[in-house]
Amino acid sequence: MVEVRLRVNGAIESLDVEPRVSLLDALREHLGLTGTKKGCDQGACGACTVLADGERINSCLALAVQYADREITTVEGIATGGRPHPLQTAFIANDGFQCGYCTSGQLCSAIGMLAEHGAGAPSAVTEHLSTTGIELTDAEIRERMSGNLCRCGAYNGIVGAIRDVADTEPVRSEPVRSEPVRSEPVR
Amino acid sequence: MTGTRTQSPSRPETAGPVVGRPVDRLDGTPKTTGAARYSAEYPYPGIAYAALVHATIARGRITGIDTASASAVAGVLTVITHENAPAMKPPPKVSMLNLSSLASGTSVNYLNTDQVHWNGQPVAVVVAETLDAAREAAGLVRVGYEELPATVDFAAEEPNAKPQKSNAIQSGGAKKGDAQAALAAAPVSVDLRFTTPPHHHNAIEPHATTAAWDGDRLTVHEGTQNIPWVRRHLALRFDVPEKAVRVISPYVGGAFGGKTMVWPGTILTVLAARVTGRPVRMMLTREGVYRTVGGRTPSTQRMALGADADGRLTALIHTSVTQVGRVGGGPEQVTSQSRHLYDAANILVQQNQVELDMLSNTVMRAPGESIGTFALESAVDELAAELGLDPIELRMRNEPARNPIDGKRFAHRMLRESYALGAELFGWADRTPRPRSMRDGRWLVGMGVASAYHPSWQLPANVTVRLSADGTVVVRCGFHEMGMGAATAQAQIAADALGVPFEAVRVEYGDSTLPSGPGAGGSAQTASVANSLIAACEKLKRSVLALARKSGDSPLRGQRPRDVEARNGGLYRIGRPEGHDPRKGESYPTILSRAGRSEVEAAVGSDTRLGELTGQLRFMSKFMLDRRRWVKAACGAQFCEVRVDADTGEIRVSRWVGVFDVGRVINAKTASSQLRGGVVMGIGMALSEETLVDPRTGRIMNPGLAEYHVPVHADIPPIDVRYLDDPDPTMPLGLIGVGEVGITGVAGAIANAVHHATGKRVRDLPITLDKLL
User: Fold this and answer.
1) Is A178 domain-assigned?
2) CB contact under 8 A, A98 and B38
C-alpha cells in the first residue's frame, strides 16, 4: 500500500492504494466518483477519459500513483458554481447520447480536444501542418474525437454539440486549482 | 438502498399536445453529470469483488483445479469451483408456455458440473477484497482437462445443417408455388451465396452485477433488458421465492440484445455473495463479455431471384444456415423480410441450423433482418443490373399490395413513399448507373439503396397511474431505459392522455418493485407500455369523473365518460370552447379536493399469479389474432454514398439518407437518434465488424474493442433520418417501434454503393479493403 494524494475536481483526497491501482479504479472504487466509466479497461474505448492538468487521458491506462498532485477533473467537476458546462447543456440539446455510458468520457475528451485545438495542435486530417488557426471543421472534430466510442451511435449529436460550443464559447481549458485543504470544490 | 429511477421534467414546455415533439430526454442531467448510477456503481459497505476463470477448451471434463496459488493472494476471500460450490437448481427447460424459461443464457449449471461446453465457460470465480486481487488470483487458478472432440467450425459444419422447426412464434420456412421451377424458367435470374460473420453487441457498459443477500432476500443491481426474467430466473436458481428477489436496473449502459438473457456473470456474482456473505460486485472484463455473453450467429445464405424481362419477380428463394450452441441459443429469422418485401409469384424460404460446441448465440439488434436484408437487398441490386433497370424502379415494380407469401393485409406500408422522399432528398437522379462512372479526384464515388424492414411487436405491460390532488401524475412501470428515451416518451403520452402539462408527469421505472414492464426487445417496449398506459389513463379519468358527477356542485354532474375529455389539467365537456371555463368542467385539484381525496390511482394488469396468467393469455390470444389478420412492420428506404480510394481500396461512407415508415413518432428527437444509431451499427456491420473464431479451438480470437472494430466518430457522416409520421391504425397511438429497423438494409445499401463505385460485388461481410484489391 502507498499513500497517494489526489487532487480531484478541486478537492484533495488522500488514499491508501496498491501501486497497481489504476487512476480509473481509484476514482470509481476508492473515491466513489463513478461518473468516470469503465468500458474496456485497456485504452480502446475512451469511456474513462478524464482531464489531467487540462489534458485528456485514458484513466484506465494511468496508475493512480503517477497522478499524485496532478489536477484531475472528472465529469463531476466540469460544471462551475452550479452552472453546467456549456458542453453538458449542448449534449442534451443535441441528443448527443442515448444510454449515457460513454457520455462522461465524450464530455471530458471534448473539453480536452477543444483546448488542444485552441493551442494549435494539428490532427491527422489537418491539411497543412504549418497552418496557424486550424479551422475546426466537422471532419476535424470527428477525427479528434475518434478515441471515444459510442455504441448507441450518437456521433452526429456529439459532433453537433461540440460544434455549437466551439462556435459560441471561449474554451475553458485550464484545470481546476485545488487548495491544500480538503473542502468544497474551489473556483 | 433505493434505485428506482424517477424522472420528472425540469424544463418548461409550451402548451398543447406534447406527443410528437422533440422533447429533450428527461435523464439528460444525470447522464451528463455522472450522477446516473449503472449497476456496478452502487456503494455497499464491505463490498467484495469477483473475477471469472474461463475454460480454455471447447468440450471436455475438468480433471483437477489447483487453487492454492490463487487462494494465497493477499485479500482473496475464496475461490469457488465445481468442487466446493453450493448446489444451485438447474436452468429450467425451455417452454413456449412460459416465456421466462427463455431467460437462461445457456442450459449449463455453472460450477455445479465438471463438464465444459464451450471455450470460455466460467470454471471458477475468485472473490477478493479488491478488484486487483481478484483479477490477479483468477490468473493463477490452474485447471486440468480431459479434452473431448468438439465441433466448432461453422464453415465445416454447414453441410450438416438441419431445417429449423416452426413453432407458434417463429416459422422456419414457408413457400408459395414452385420457386425452384420458376427460377429455372426465368429469363433473367441471379443465384447467389452470401456470408456474414459472428457479431458482438459491445455495449460500452460491460455486463456488471452488484448482489447483496440479507438472509434469504436478495437485491441485485443489474443492467438488463428484462427485469422480470432476471428476477424469476435468480429466484429459481437460488431456490428462494420470487418476491424475495429485487432487481434494480434504472440505467442500462447499452444492450442491443446482449442484456436480454441471464448470462453466467450474473448468476456467479449472486453465488459469490451467497458463499461469502458479503455484497459482491462483478463487472466482466471486455474479454469476459465475449467469453460469457452470446453474440449474433454467423450465417451463410442462398439468395436467388428470377424475373421476367420487365423485371416482375417470378421466383424468390432465400435459404440460410445459422448456428446455435449445443447449450442454448435460438434460430435466427434470416428469411423474415424475404416473406414480405417483394411480390414474387413463387417464393421459397427456409432457415437451417447447425449445432456447435460453442456458447449460445443470442439476439442482437434486428436478429434475422439485419443480416437477411444484406443478402436480399444485394441480390435485388444485382438483378436490377442484369435487367438494366434502376434498382428503385425494380423495387417499385414488385411492391406488393398484400403480403406476398399468404395474401394477408399489411397493417401499414409506405415503402413507396419512403423511396420517393428518400430519392428526392438524396439526389438519386444525379446518379449515373454505370459502375465506376462517378469520381471525385482519387475517390471512386458510389450510390446505393436498400429496403429496411422489421416486424412490429407488442408485449404485455402492467402500469399504474396515480393522479395527486395537486394535479401531478406518477406513472409506474418496471420498463427499461438503455438509451431509447423510454421514460420521456411515456411521460409525453401520459401528459396528453390526462391533459396535464408534460412537467406535471413523473415516471418511475427500472425496478422489480414496480408493476412488471415488458422486456425491452423486438422494438416493442414503447408500444407495449403505451398501450397499457393509455388504458390506465382512461380508467383514471373515469374514476375522477365518477367523483365529480356525484357532486351537486360540479359542472360535470351527470356527465358520461364519452361526453368528457381531459384537457387543461382537468376534465371538461367535449365540444365546448377550450379553456378553464368553470361552467364546462373543472380541474383535477378541484375534483379531488372536493371529494376529500389526496390521490386517485388506476392500474392495468396485475402482478399476482392469476393476473400474470391472464396477461399472458390475453397477450397470446391477441398475438395469434393479430397474426391471422395482419402483417405488421416498420419499413424504410436506406440511401448511401460511399467513396472508395481507387488505389488503396479504403472505403468511406460519405452521405446517408434514411426514410422510415414507423407510424406515428412519439418523440421526434429520441426516435431520430435511435434510427440513426441503427444506421451507425449497420455501417459497422457492413465495413468492419467481425468476431473471429479459431476453427480448431472454438476460441474467440479478437475479444476486445481494439481488435473488433465498431464505428468511431471519423467513420460516421451526417445521417439524415426522416420518418413519414403516418399512424399505423392497428398500433397504440399509431406508433411502430424504431429500435431495430434502422440497422436493416444498411449493409445492403453499402454493398450496392461499393459495387456502383468499383464494379466489384462483395457478398461476404465485412466489406474490407482487401476484398476490393
Assistant:
1) no
2) no
Sheet with B564-567: strands ordered across: B564-567, B570-573, B585-587
Mutate to test the interface with A, among B7, B24, B25, B31 (most CBs of A within 10 A): B31
Task: Work out the minimum CA distance from B711 to partner chain A, whole angstroms.
Answer: 8
Return residues 387-426 of B near A (CB < 8 Å).
none
Distance CA B527, CA B389 (A): 39
Examine the domain organization and report whether A115 and A148 are in the same domain.
yes
Give the pLDDT of residue B627. 83
Average pLDDT over residues B67-87: 98
* A181 part of a folded domain: no
| pLDDT class of B99 with cuts at 50, 70, 90 | confident
Chain B nearest C-alpha distance from A168 (Å): 20
Model confidence at B465: pLDDT above 80? yes
Domain termination site, one of A12, A46, A77: A77
Q: Please indicate whether, in this complex, the C-beta atoms of B31 and A141 are within 8 angstroms of each other.
A: no
**Residue ending a domain, choose from A32, A47, A77:** A77
Q: B224: number of CA atoms within 13 Å, CB side?
A: 34
User: Is the CB of residue B202 less than 8 Å away from at least one CB of chain A?
Assistant: yes
Q: For the CA atoms of chain A, what is the radius of gyration?
A: 16
> What is the nearest CA distance from B150 to chain A, expressed in angstroms?
30
| pLDDT exceeds 50 at position B735 | yes
Mean of pLDDT values over A22-30: 97
The Cα B346–Cα B608 span in angstroms is 48
**Looking at chain B from residue 696 to 725, which residues have their Cβ under 8 Å from any Cβ of chain A?**
704-706, 710-714, 716, 718-719
Determine the residue of chain B that is closest to A86 in CA distance: B32
**The CATH number of the domain where A26 resides is what?**
3.10.20.30
User: Scanning the structure block, which residue is given the C-alpha cell 397470446?
Assistant: B620
- State the total domains in chain A: 2
Residues of B carrying an active site annotation: 740
Q: Where are the domains of chain B?
A: 5-36+459-614
| B 661-690 residues inside an 8 A Cβ radius of A | 669-670, 672-674, 676-681
* Mean of pLDDT values over B555-579: 87
Q: Any idea what the CATH number is for the domain that residue A119 is in?
A: 1.10.150.120
| Architecture per CATH, B5-36+459-614 | 2-Layer Sandwich (3.30)
Q: What value of ipTM does the predicted structure carry?
A: 0.96
* Residue B674 C-alpha, separation from nearest chain A C-alpha, in angstroms: 8
Tell me what pLDDT residue A75 has: 98
For residue B575, pLDDT beyond 80: no
Q: Do B28 and A142 touch (CB under 8 A)?
A: no
Distance CA B120, CA B286 (A): 13
CA angle (B526 as vertex; B462, B748 as ends), nearest 5:
140
Q: Is-contact B452 B759, C-beta < 8 A? A: no
Q: pLDDT band at B682, cuts 50/70/90?
A: very high
> What is the per-residue pLDDT across B657-671, written as a single tens digit (0 to 9) for each?
999 999 999 999 999
The C-alpha angle with vertex B465 and arms to B461 and B470, in degrees rounded to 5, equals: 165
A151:B203 CB<8 A: yes
CA dist., res. B54 & res. B65, Å (int): 12
Asked if B37 has any chain A CB less than 8 Å from its own CB, the reply is yes
Q: Which of A76, A101, A139 sits opposite B253 (nearest CB)?
A: A101
- Residues of chain A found within 8 Å of residue B705, distances taken between Cβ atoms: 39-40, 42, 44-45, 149
Query: What is the pTM assigned to this prediction?
Result: 0.95
Range of the domain at A126: 86-168
| CB crowding B663-674: b at 16 or more within 10 Å, else e | bbbbbebbbbbb
Tens of pLDDT, residue by residue over B584-639, are 899 999 999 999 999 999 999 988 888 888 888 888 888 888 888 899 999 999 99
Amino acid at B247: V
